[in-house]
Amino acid sequence: MGYPLDMRALLLTTLLLTGCDGLRACVIRHWPQDYAPSSDPEAGSGAAWPPGVPFTDGPDAGLGTVAISLELVAEGLEKPTDIQFIPGSSSEAVVLEKEGRVLWGTVSTGEFQELLRLKVATKSEQGVLGAAFHPDFSSNGLLFLNHSEPKVAGGSMSVVSRYRVLDAPRRAEYIGEVLRVDQPYANHNAGQICFGPDGMLYIGWGDGGWRADPNGNAQNPGTWLGSMLRIDVDRQDPGKQYAVPPDNPWVDSPGVAPEAWAIGLRNPWRYSFAPDGRLVVADVGQDAWEEVAIVARGENHGWNIREGSHCFEPSTGCASEGLTPPVFEYGRASGHSITGGFVYTGKAIPELHGRYVFADFVSGRLWAITLPAPGEQAATDLRSLGRWTMLPSTFGQGADGEIYVADYGRGRIFRLSLPGPASESR
């Protein structure tokens, strides 16, 4: 893993005592604020280390690299879970905090104000998890949020709601609920929402939790869990606060949720649309593999038959017919919980242009890959962007194509930039 033995012992002990489902849930709940990977030159040595300089170790040591720095642009946040820029803006954004705050501000100056505070369930991976601006935000002011709502009798629901952002003073006015789904466990809620280039709202939910998908949700096309949904929030079907697009793949299939766009996902923690319109999803694995998948209409991405491109339970025979493999995967030597990002289209780091940037939440590694061309199956040219002393929980991308990353553990936001004196990563 690359972490100090005492930290590994702490995490494993916590896993046993608290029932965390894997390292990701344990890190979210119990990671200390003064964490430092063991290969960090500062860990235990007292030696100085230049600010803004990452270190490279383990399987990354033999990779090609793209030299970057992380330029500190905001701090003082609490457990950030999402960064969403206002459509057309390279500076103004909303930032979500796990335990209920929705902040509005200028990322370049790090100045934020509270737009809204929600009462949310916060156990394990629950909280305020996803935000999406309507494509016509400049004219209608609509903002959509996905959060965990506690139930009176125990447990929780995932709820997507609609708000209107008002000025003078800036605040968010609740308009109404769009949809909700019961969550059987407190993990694998996923939580991102994202408008596609087709104007539809995509909602990625995990399998509902615990280990090995005990309820079989990801391979059950009749449930929303373990699926990517696609809905039209500008129209309403009878009895719904949205409409099912008529070109959804299973709209006329008995026993299949008509909202579903694809199934077989475990915990799609962050996804985005590439410049060519393809949906790129980072799906968190369980025992051995993290994956990047390109998710298209009507596909089955295999969980819990397969984990990544590998048989999850070899004794079952693990037939792969009809399952869509990932375009990239990595194993436990590199990390334990993938965080999806964006295809870089900015100008600050020319060598990164056109590459998909992503990270591992537990190991702090950042990478970039070249996505396969349409019709091809595997990503190419994996590059290391270094391992950093941070917990990268989410990325954001401004209209200028520049990419930002949030550190969940220390409540900071960084802009990816070329190495230089303005950067500060520690």
What does this structure look like?
- The protein has 426 residues and is mostly beta strands.
- The chain has one domain: 6 Propeller (Neuraminidase).
- Helix content is 6%, strand content 37%.
- The strands form seven sheets. Strands 1-25-24-23-22 form a five-stranded mixed sheet, with no helix packed on it. Strands 11-12-13-14-18 form a five-stranded mixed sheet, with no helix packed on it. A four-stranded antiparallel sheet has the order 2-28-27-26, with no helix packed on it.
- The longest helix is centred in the N-terminal third of the chain and has 14 residues, at 5-18.
- The radius of gyration is 20 Å and the shape is globular.
In short:
6% of the residues lie in helices and 37% in strands. It has 426 residues and is mainly beta.
Q: What is the CATH fold-level name?
A: Neuraminidase
Number of helices: 3
Largest sheet: 5 strands, mixed
Q: Which structural class do you get from the secondary structure elements?
A: mainly beta
| Total count of strands | 28
Across the major sheet, the strand order is 1-25-24-23-22
Whole-number radius of gyration?
Answer: 20 Å
What secondary-structure arrangement, pairings included, does this model have?
Elements: H1 5-18, H2 22-30, E1 64-65, E2 69-74, E3 80-85, E4 92-97, E5 101-106, E6 111-117, E7 128-133, H3 137-140, E8 142-150, E9 156-166, E10 171-183, E11 193-195, E12 201-204, E13 227-231, E14 260-263, E15 268-273, E16 279-283, E17 290-295, E18 299-300, E19 306-307, E20 310-311, E21 328-330, E22 338-343, E23 356-360, E24 365-370, E25 380-387, E26 392-397, E27 403-407, E28 412-417
Parallel strand pairs: 1-25, 14-18
Antiparallel strand pairs: 2-28, 3-4, 4-5, 5-6, 7-8, 8-9, 9-10, 11-12, 12-13, 13-14, 15-16, 16-17, 17-21, 19-20, 22-23, 23-24, 24-25, 26-27, 27-28
Helix pairs in contact: 1-2
